[in-house]
Every structure is written in C-alpha cells, then in structure tokens.
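**Folding the chain**
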Amino acid sequence: MAGQRSREDLKAFLDWVGAKGLMPLATVHARKAAVNNILEILSEEEASDVTLINIDELMSRYSNLKGKNYTPDSLKTYQSRLSKALEDFEIYVENPMGFRPSGGKRKISTAGKESVKLEKNRPNVASPPIGVSTPSVPPPSANIIPIAIRQDLIIHVQGIPFDLTKAEAQRVANVILAMAMETS
C-alpha cells in the first residue's frame, strides 16, 4: 500500500488502521463514511491521487451537488473527518514505518491516573441540560454511523455496509420515512 495514493488505497488504509487497532473503530467508520460520500464525486483521474485534493474546493463542489441533504454542521463534520483521514493517509504514505495516527489517544499519567489527550481544534462539548438524556454509546467494535437529527438528538445507524448501493440506501430511507409522523 505504501506509495499508492488513490481513493481505493485510502479506503484500504482506513480498513487497515481499524483492523490493527490503531484508532477506535467508531472513528475509522466515521472517517470512512465521509471518504465514501465525499470522494464519490471525484472523476477517476482526480481519484488517482487523493493527496493532491484541495479539501475546501472539493467540499464546495460536494455542497453544490449534495448539500441539500445535509445541514451546514454535518458538512463541517464530514470535512473534518475527510481532512483527518487524508492527513493520516498522507503521513502513512510518506513514512509507513513511522506512522502514528492523529487524534485522541489515551495516556497514563505518572500518578497512575488515566488522562485523555484531546484532538487539537476539537470543540468543547457541553453537558446536556438537566432532564435531557444523553444517547447511549454503542460498543466501538460495531459498524455504527452517528447521525445528528436534532440539536439534542443523535441516532446511531448500525450494520450499514460501506459498499451500500444507492438502491439499498433508498430501501433503508423508505423504511425510515414510513416511521415518520406528519407534523402540523
């Protein structure tokens, strides 16, 4: 894989990082979902070397093509995930032996207490208001995609394959649409 920079190589890299346990599987799956969705708009020529992508320009194109399906915050999240995935991938391609993934890694302090090193530029997450329950967090080993549908509500979609076809996605969407209540 070293030296190869295509869209498919990036996807294989993310699979490898997850299989080796170099980052939490939930993070890998979230990054891979962003990669699959955003990079699908690239031509084969553009997808041959993803390290040359101008992310801001690509996100502008993606927003123009598919932005109506996403909130601005969702697009920012996708952009961040794509950026981190490409950053790690480029570091790996340049130096596979020295590769260390970026992101929130845990470390043990000298006092024996566990501390968490937060990702840089990660926004502080406020506690939910009293009376609002926080969503349960599924185990990191599952293929889970978190989707913020309201400011105070995140749903987790589990078991969706990353090679999902548009017809299969439409079937899933139809089931969810059938569950929706009409608002007045």
Q: What stands out?
A: Strands lie at 106-108, 114-116, 144-150, 153-158.
